[in-house]
Every structure is written in C-alpha cells, then in structure tokens.
Amino acid sequence: MEPGKPAGVPAAPAGGAALGVTAAPFIRCGPAAVLDLAGRAGRLGYGSLWVAEVTGTEAFSVLGAVSRAAPGIGLGTGVVPMQVRTPPLLAMAAASVQALAPGSQVLLGVGASSPVVAGDWHGADYQPEPLSRMREFIALLRECLSGGTVTFAGDYYQVRGFRLGVELGGRRPEIILGALGEGMLRLAGEQADGVLLNYLPASHVPWCVEQVRRGGNARIYANVHVGVGDRAAAAPRARYDLFSYAVVDAYARSFTRAGFGQAVQAIRAAHRAGDRAGALSAVPDEMVDAINVVGDQALIASTIGAYRRAGVDVPVVFPLTWGAAGQDALDPTLQAAIAPE
C-alpha cells in the first residue's frame, strides 16, 4: 500500500523567514564555508539553509553542525540523489538530524539526480525513466518516517519489519521533491510536502506551479540564482554554468520549455562537435539575465519579488559571487534578497 501525503501543507512563515539560502555554490569549499553561510543567514533572519550533495560535503553531517551554528534555522537537503541511499537509511538520517534539532524543521529534499552524478561518480544504478521509482521511493520514505512498522513490497524496494528507531516529537521531517518535468512536478503535488525548482526564470514558474497543482498541494520552493556585483565580470562564469546544465538532458528539456529551445540546440550542437568556445558563445544574454541574475541590490530585491509574484512560496537564494570578490558579493547579496523591493 502506498499512503498519500498528509492533507494540506503548513503555511510558510511570514516576512523574511519565508526565504531560504542554499550552500550549493560552496559545496566544494568544505564544511567551514557552509557553517559560515549558515551563521550569516541566521543572523539576518533567513528561515532555512539548504545543503546540496554531489561529491563535496555530505549533507546530514553538515546539517547537524549547522543546527548548532544557526539554532532554529530550517535544515534542508537541496537535494540528495535518491539512488545513493535506501528510503529507510534516508529516513534514519533525516530523523537523526530532526532529533538533534527539535526546534528546526528538517526539509528532506530528494531528487532523481543524473547518470553522471549517480552512476559515474557514485557507482549507483541510474534508471533512465526515474518517475515510477521516485513514486515508490517517496511512498516508502514516508512510511519509514511514520514511526510504525513497515512492510513494503514494491517493484524497486522490498522492506520487511522496518521500524524507525529514532524518537521524534511533534515535528517530523518534511519531504521535498526536486523536480523539473511535468511528471515529477505532478508527483510532488500528489505525494510530497514541497517541491524545489531550480535553474528556471521567473517566467517559467507559473507553468511549474500549474503542474504541481494538478497533483495536489505542495509548497513551492525555488532556487533563485542572484548576486550583487558587476554583470559584465560575471557573464563568462554565468555562460559556462548554463552551458554545463544545458548539455544535461533533463535541464535541456526544462530550458526549452522556458523558451530557450534555439539556444539549447545551438549549445548542444557545438558541444557535440567539440567546439567549447562555440557552445559558450551560444548561451544568449537573455538566458543569462533570466536565470543567473547579477547586478545591484535593487535588481536582486526585484528578482526575488518576481519569483514570489510568479508563485514561489519560499525563494531559496543561490548566491552568485562571480561579479565581485568573495564576501564582497555574499553579504550584499544576502542583505539585498531579504530587503523589500
């Protein structure tokens, strides 16, 4: 049996607390960089800190440390690949962090990842069509987090007699699904507490929200890529960043739905031909300025507002430091994002 998610989704906190920040840009800088970001965000009143997981920092150990560096801040994984942990183990990890930090909300973000990350780098089995596996994964994960005895017989997972051995109080981890395509977005609405969007312009948010709402209720989170700095100085890094995602099939489809289909075709054609310079030059200014937004503080504040108006409940700041040196970009970006327009 696959139980549905609990009815309704809790309202997001009001004001500045309805804003998160992700450490994704710093995951190869070591845990100290994440803890530093958490401290800065906590002092500014941010509601959640998210840790991505690829080959750098491991999410749950770092979130345990974050719970001490910034007490009370929400603790998010944004996201962990579903292929590298079983649902029972993931439930154990999330419940352990939740028990360590009962005053914080654990936001258990999980995603389908990619063949390179899951298969090449972690040696895990990657299913080309992950939707059915993710549906089963979330159903089993929710059962494991319930605290009851779990026996589950699915197409991908078989569990007998599992019972979570971590005592939780009134607060339990919420399941957040990282999603790009129609099927995953709808699944988030059906089974998850929230959905985490990524690498999309504000103009593409309404389509994503529509797919989620066809499945049901889920809070809408979105990584918003912004940085205070010089746009011209940041542009080469921004182009490389978008190129590196445009050659991944799932992101290519998402960029195409967002209106950048011609650019995606040109980028991928140049990449296949071994023309790196041509692929980078094929990333248009319009795509850079819609997704990787660098400029003054007013532009950052208005960009956060645009995502909110498009339907994002909780923008998650993805700090871009390409247009200035280190902390000269980070602190103004965090301050600008939380300021009113």
Structural features, described:
The protein contains 13 helices and twelve strands. The protein has 341 residues and is α/β, with parallel strands linked by helices. It has a single domain (16-231, 292-338), classed as Luciferase-like domain (TIM Barrel, Alpha-Beta Barrel). The protein has an eight-stranded parallel beta barrel, surrounded by eight helices. It has a two-stranded antiparallel sheet with strand order 6-7. Helix 6 links the parallel strand 8 (174-178) and strand 9. Helix 1 (31-44) packs across helix 2. The longest helix is centred in the last third of the chain and has 24 residues, at 249-272. It is globular.
SSE blueprint:
Blueprint: E1 20-22, H1 31-44, E2 48-51, H2 59-69, E3 74-77, E4 80-81, H3 87-100, E5 106-111, H4 115-121, H5 131-145, E6 150-153, E7 158-162, E8 174-178, H6 182-191, E9 194-197, H7 205-215, E10 219-228, H8 231-246, H9 249-272, H10 276-281, H11 285-291, E11 292-295, H12 297-310, E12 314-319, H13 327-338
